[in-house]
Specification:
This protein is an alpha/beta fold. Helices cover 56% and strands 9% of the residues. It is elongated.
């Protein structure tokens, strides 16, 4: 079979690279003994999946077809052709294997002299989930589904299964969708997650409302939008205070008039104070209370999103762990938010797949992952020696006082959009601004600061572009956060391996040296 492909074909390097990895963790999942034919070699299946993802193929049925028709796939399998069920079952082990494979490839790259961490860049990218955003449901809709629609959907899916036939390589409904029991579980999981989010949101609103009331009662005004519940309570208190003040003024006037009459004098002159019903302050307070009551009533109903802010609290009944993610240029996709930390030479040294729509809270966790990766790389780099992360670059999505002051290496985090930073740099740093964010803005306005930050786009975004464009990996094929995160980590593993090959670090001669 070696005569089927030229000696310099890329597939030979991939086969050799997997052969040089420590795959004991993969072999530990192999089932041995018992009835049936011997299982396929785990190293072969790992190589097969790496090669498939490198070609932009993630469908197990399509991989099975290529194992029969494509020469490079047949070489990997040594003429055997694992069926799509075998491939899918092996890939189902990703949550337990992807992390180890990622580490082993990173070690391989380090042994080849890669992984320069003098400057690293952190960035997030949105990845589409194996779910449609059209099946997102709010809490009321989920309760309705859980109550009556699950059985009907299960019957429809079962009918489609019967129509397409079991075991075919067509587009029959996946088992996890067709099974009414699992669909019910996914609906219940989505509903439970949404209820937990609602309770957390209510608790947060109560805390903010109490803080506002405390400040208002102390006579200190608070900036920002007033919580609806606090606004209602404050409006009631203002009305009661205005009514009490008007009643007190009217009562005081009556006492003075009675005292004057008893002494034989005329009553006190001037305009009589208005009672609670006629007081301008009371009417104003009542109008404010009516507005607060209307706002509180709207807040208790189904949340209505602001323009461009998404449809409010919803959950997806196909993949409850995925979220509606805002994307550049407007709009939303159903997916996840991948956090990647890239080295100077284009390796992804740390990655996490999250369902957070924002990046801010992930700066410190990714920083710690990067420090661990730098230690691992240095331990296997030829010549060794300490080479910690010197500078970490991040965009404005990570800008916060906590991220600027947390312990760790030097960092440049944008305080605004790129064109604003460039404009400030052209005019030079102004007078010193207060706080860590002001100090960072001043630093980015200096020639050294803006020059160093300009590297961020290339370092951070190039790996994302290569995964999505070169590998064609734009959409996850596995559902649930654990499986989706493992698949994304595997895609990053493939990217790192191909980076070692395309940069000329991984060659037959280098493999022979490593062996």
């Amino acid at each position: 079979m070696r005569e089927w492909l030229p000696a310099d074909h890329l597939v030979w390097l991939v086969i050799g690279a997997v052969g040089s990895l420590d795959t004991r963790a993969v072999h530990a999942h192999r089932r041995t003994g018992g009835a049936g034919a011997a299982g396929y070699d785990p190293d072969m299946l790992v190589t097969l999946l790496i090669w498939a993802y490198a070609q932009g193929v993630s469908s197990s049925r399509r991989i099975e077809q290529l194992c029969r028709a494509d020469v490079s796939f047949r070489v990997i399998c040594a003429g055997q052709a694992p069926d799509h069920v075998t491939i899918a079952r092996f890939r189902a082990q990703f949550p337990g294997l992807a992390g180890e494979l990622f580490t082993q490839v990173l070690v391989l790259c380090a042994r080849l002299g890669m992984g320069r961490v003098g400057t690293v860049a952190l960035d997030g990218t949105k990845v589409a989930a194996a779910a449609s955003k059209d099946v997102n449901r709010a809490e009321k809709a989920l309760r309705k589904l859980a109550a009556g629609l699950v059985a009907a959907h299960g019957e429809t899916d079962a009918a489609e299964d019967e129509l397409f036939g079991a075991g075919r390589r067509g587009d029959e409904v996946p088992a996890e969708v067709a099974d009414p029991a699992t669909r019910g579980e996914r609906i219940r999981a989505a509903l439970a997650d949404l209820e937990a989010e609602r309770k957390a949101r209510e608790q947060d609103q109560e805390t903010k409302a109490q803080a506002y009331l405390d400040e208002a009662r102390a006579g200190r005004a608070r900036r920002g939008r007033v919580p609806a519940a606090a606004a209602l309570t404050a409006a009631r208190e203002r009305l009661a205070k205005a009514e009490a003040a008007a009643a007190a003024r009217a009562a005081a006037r009556q006492v003075r008039d009675a005292q004057a009459a008893a002494a034989g004098r005329r009553g006190s002159g001037g305009k009589r104070p208005a009672g609670p019903e006629a007081s301008t302050a009371v009417r104003t307070a009542r109008a404010a209370l009516a507005r607060a009551q209307a706002r509180a009533q709207d807040a208790d109903s189904e949340p209505v999103p602001a323009a461009g802010k998404g449809p409010g609290p919803v959950r997806n009944i196909t993949d409850p762990d995925s979220r509606l993610m805002p994307v550049r240029g407007g709009g939303f996709i159903q997916g996840y938010n991948a956090q990647n930390l890239a080295s100077e030479d284009g390796l992804i040294i740390g990655t996490e797949l999250t369902n957070d729509t924002t990046d801010t809270t992930w700066f410190e966790p990714m920083l710690r992952i990067g420090e661990h990766a730098a230690t691992l790389i240095n331990a296997h780099r030829p010549g060794g020696g300490p080479a910690p992360i010197g500078l970490i670059l991040a965009d404005a999505g990570y800008c916060s006082t906590a991220n600027l002051t947390t312990e760790g290496p030097d960092r440049l985090i944008a305080t605004g959009k790129h064109h604003d930073l460039e404009k400030q740099a052209r005019h030079g740093a102004g007078p010193g601004r207060d706080g860590p964010i002001g100090a960072m803005a001043d630093r980015l306005a200096t020639p050294d600061g803006i020059t160093a930050y300009r590297r961020r786009g290339h370092l951070a975004e190039t790996p994302h572009g290569q995964i999505k464009h070169n590998l064609g990996f734009r959409r996850l094929s596995m559902r649930g956060h654990a499986k989706a995160a493992a698949e994304w980590r595997f895609a990053c593993t493939v990217h790192n391996l191909l980076k070692a090959i395309t940069t000329g670090h991984l060659t037959p001669q280098a493999l022979a040296t490593l062996a």
